[in-house]
Amino acid sequence: xxxxxxxxxxxxxxxxFIYGDEARKTKFVQSLGDAYNSIGxxxxxxxxxxxxxxxxxxxxxxxxxxxEESVKQKYEIEGLAGQRGYIGxxxxxxxxxxxxxxxxxxxxxxxxxDGDPIKSEYxxxxxxxxxxxxxxIGLEVYQSLEKTGxxxxxxxxxxxxLEEMYFDDKVKNGNSILRxxxxxxxxxxxxxxxxxxxxxxxxxxxxxxxxxxxxADGLQVLRRDGQWIPxxxxxxxxxxNVGDMLERHxxxxxxxxxxxxxxxxxxxxxxxxYSIPFFMHPxxxxxxxxxxxxIDENNPKQFEDITAGDFLSERLAEIGLKK
Length: 323
Description:
This protein is of the alpha+beta class.
């Protein structure tokens, strides 16, 4: 395990891994592993999402979130456990809490187009009549981030001593989610619960999360020594972090680091913050049992065997999205 304490998250160039010679590729894998051993987060440039696509998606989601509440609520579909469409203000809370986060969001899920029978597991996406461009740009961004995620997982596989393509079939048509989030303005800060925050401290459920640059500061990660450090990505970077499924599968070798989005100072509470994470999930039948490569005398098996689908169901109930 790396003992290094980072004051900021390391920046890596994904082109080193995809197009570099053997030495550059090896260095990328080692740097990624060191970061994921310690702080669980990196920033990467030269991924597959263009700045233009990012800007187009932000424009579309700002249009959606500015619609009247009654219009947005048409897209909140009962019985979907928040898997697709709109999820209203305060509906989600961090595991172990009951106070809802100060946010609303919208989910775009996997579109299976190759006849894979897994399609029957996924509800259809919910598209917004008032913002028709959201469908095309949303799916393009989804595919760009999914492609980036596949390469990140290939680097992770090599770091773990696995075959490079180990994760490929596990994430093909996986249950990944693109989540545009609106941390809405608080007109009267005294009216919200004293412990309410934009996003309470939490670990992500999935394998890895890829985050497009947010529209304002506020994201913080909990360092191993208990200190919170701010995370900011440059416009051309994605922040990529380890989720709970990957921590579990690697028997704690890779760290799913606790993070949060803090409230702005009172004088900025009346402003919006937008953020778009891509939660990369495997197929539901992926076995998350601890890898033998990650178990030894110094690191005995820490987690019970479970599939990705069962783990997701448990966690959706814990955060208030699944009844």
